[in-house]
Amino acid sequence: MRLPESFYTSVRTRLSEALDERGLDGFLATSPADVAFLSGFFYIATERPVYLWMPREGDPLLVIPRLDEEYAAQQGVTIPMVSYFEFPGVVSAEETLAAALPRPGGAGRRIGVSAGVSVAAYRALSRAIAGAELVTTDAVAKLRLRKFPEEIPFHEAAAGICDEMLAAGRGLIEEALASGGPLPREDEIARHVIGYGTDQMYAHYDLVVYTTKLAGGLVYAGPNSALPHGLPTRRRIQPGDTLILSLGAAVASRFVESERTFIVGEPNAEQVRYYEADREAQEVGTQAMVAGRTCAEVNKICLDVLREHGLGDYIRHRQGHGIGLQNHEAPWVEDGDDTVLAPGMLLSSEPGVYVPGHAGYRISDTVLVREAGPRRLTGYPRDLASNVIEGVR
Q: In the chain, what are the domains?
């Protein structure tokens, strides 16, 4: 799962240029996603800090807990490393970092950190690296906006697994219908699809790494599906339900999401109306993801379709968001984001219709922005006929 060393060399070269433009002496990565992006080291985030020092000039340095040394070696990490024994430690992670930095200490240095650095980490680093100015910067966030060519195959592999997870969730319901037994609960479907996706990772890859999770699933049906971020419950699927499977998967922590709405049994007129409106909005919005347009423009084009269908009161969220080493990251396909789409950006296209007391409808694909136009990485069918689960007793 490790990307070639040439990828990390290219990333560091571009980061050095970005730091130079911003008048920064280096960047200090403090989050699992930034550390993984810049070094290829994946770890479970706990109270034990991991710091990656990326100087504008010179060699990088990785500061890790001693108990992670073997794991870093197993991953083939080649960056020079120093370790500290424990947290909070007699010698802290921040003091270990400060002692290992090339002299002269931190005096006069302007060190970039991401906007997501915690207040506690910011204060601990400021105390340890005396005299340095810690400056929040978008240098790394900007690099992560557009995926490097080496990253795309991992996203494509995750897309295939994610589509298979949808089929597995549907299959569980169809098996219950065929057997004549009770239909599965929301939580049972969620456990099934997450297990399926995780099993696929371990079946295909010798060393499985991730920053947050391998596979995830939100499953909600009937009135529960009108809650966009509702968690799976113990409610059983029922004939006539509208069912949303909101699934995600990651290979080498390169995420995708693939979400579909199913109808359990013959859809009624109300279900057809809402489904077709959402399908049209998703198609129009996806095709609008053209290089040169802003996120705000694309979002408006997409959601205006729902408004034209008279469903503006049932819009609960934006069209989508960026996807990469995190399942949600910049840019944001929303009215307030004027980021200009560019080739290499990877976005979700997931407009939704949520009718209180009735159901929700959401279709989502992971979309790659290209010079030639948008390309869906996820490919599970989107038409209504393909998403009707038949055989209802």
A: 5-145 (3.40.350.10), 152-389 (3.90.230.10)
To which residue do tokens 């456990």 refer? 191
pLDDT at 388 over 90: yes
Q: What percent of the chain has pLDDT over 90?
A: 91
Q: Give the number of C-alpha atoms closer than 13 A to the C-alpha of residue 285, restricted to the C-beta side.
A: 33
Tell me, yes or no, if the pTM score tops 0.90. yes
Model confidence at 254, pLDDT cuts 50, 70, 90, reads: very high
Compute the distance between CA of residue 185 and CA of residue 228 in angstroms, rounded to an integer: 18
Mean pLDDT, the chain, whole residue set:
95
Residues 241 and 250: beta-carbon distance below 8 Å? no
Q: What is the DSSP letter of 386?
A: G
Compute φ and ψ for 222, nearest 5 degrees: 60, -140
Q: Which pLDDT band, with edges at 50, 70 and 90, does 196 fall under?
A: very high
* Exposure class string for 338-368: b at 16+ Cβ within 10 A, else e: ebebeebbbbbbbbbbbbeebbbbbbbbbbb
Distance from C-alpha of 184 to C-alpha of 188, rounded to nearest angstrom:
6
- Report strand pairing: 254-264 vs 329-333: unpaired
d(CA 192, CA 18): 44
Cα–Cα distance list, 3 to 7, 36, 75, 203, 380 (Å):
7, 11, 11, 19, 27
* Percent of the chain's residues with pLDDT above 70: 98
Q: Cis ω on the peptide bond leading into residue 331 (within 30° of 0)?
A: yes
d(CA 355, CA 373): 33
**Which sign does the torsion angle of CA 28, 149, 57, 5 carry?**
positive
Strands 26-29 and 110-113: parallel
Integer Cα distance of 194 and 164 in angstroms: 11
Strands 365-368 and 26-29: unpaired
Confidence (pLDDT) at 35: 97
User: How far out from the chain centre does Cα 324 lie?
Assistant: 5
Would you say how long the chain is, in residues? Answer: 393
Q: Do the Cβ atoms of 7 and 148 come closer than 8 Å? A: yes
Cα(73)–Cα(164) distance, rounded to whole angstroms?
33
